[in-house]
Amino acid sequence: MTQCGDSLGVYVHFPWCLAKCPYCDFVSHASARPDIPHGEYADAILREVDARTPSVEGRRTESIFFGGGTPSLWEPRQLGRVLAHLRGSFACTPDLEVTVECNPTSIDEERARALRDAGVNRLSIGVQSLDDQRLRFLGRLHNAEGARDAIRSATRAGVERISGDLIFGQPAQSAAEATNEALDLLDLGVEHLSCYQLTIEPATRFGELARRGRLPLADDGQVAESFAAIDQALTSRGLRHYEVSNYARPGGEARHNLGYWRGHEYLGLGCGAVGFVRANKGDGASAGAHAAHGRRYRNEIGPERYIEVMRRGPERETTDIEESCELLDAPTLLRERIMLGLRVDEGVDIESAAAALKTPGWTAQRARAAAWLEERGRIVREGGCVRIPRAAWLWTDDTAARLL
Length: 404
What we know:
Shape: globular
Strand content: 15-25%
Distance between the termini: 38 Å
CATH topology of the largest domain: TIM Barrel
Number of domains: 2
Structural class: alpha/beta
Strand order of the largest sheet: 9-10-8-7-6-5-4-1-11
CATH architecture of the largest domain: Alpha-Beta Barrel
Number of strands: 17
């Protein structure tokens, strides 16, 4: 078992879904339940855990996140095997957050209870909408009542924490309609809401339709109105708008995602998983002024090849399953820290981050950009810390780009 030290998140990717949604650009493969190699995939993950453990020696694990794909399709016994092995391999905090992403079609009271008994204490349910017509537009397999039933089932099963996802900014969706869906989910008992603007990614079915001019889209004004209305409604009900797209009751924030936004390390396991770890000797860490301070990798996206490579045993080099690897120097890591840190309401302490990375923080160009943004109310500076006021969150991406 690793000893306690720097914070580490663990992400396990489950690459199968019952169907591929037209807006999704994550690594996922449509498959019928009987065709999923539940046990073989769990065996492969266990071997990868053993192979990667030395790279994160001394870290303290605060969160484990099973994402996908649809990890609630995984047989709970097999998911539980993986979770137990992770607990035994890493120094986990007593309040370890263990999340499983679910679709309403793949979760019921029995399965939710089985996941709870395996050690899962948080379910993130992909509701996306509570309107049947909009669900059909999004290519979802469930209807609105099925989404409500999924949340009720998780609650009856005694799952400690429940989050719901919503997509707003759909064509012909009013701000009032988007807000009512968010409030309906809140009334069902979720403690956390992720409210995402519909984004059209190039390598998706929606992206293809958009290129052909055949996809109806909401205009920017409509999206901005919905964003503001949801913010007003949820914060008035006591939720904290703690990240651009995320709301939580106090104490219910997603600790795993906060780790990403705060620049913590995360170990990615499974087909298509992405991981980021600090550089160790042999990673180019002593190569001079622009030495590597971190390593980001992405695993093979084909589940059959991933399983086959890991079947050869934990003695295999982890690079055998990596599709890509990037060594990151200090200036690059600082830019990423700024880009991600500006997404949360607390902002980012650029001076502290730069000092930890031993790289200049307030370059002349960055200082000029900050002054320009501050004059226009796009950022607030408090010592070395920079944050974006909520009224300017719609321009977060542009603001971050100007400070990079």
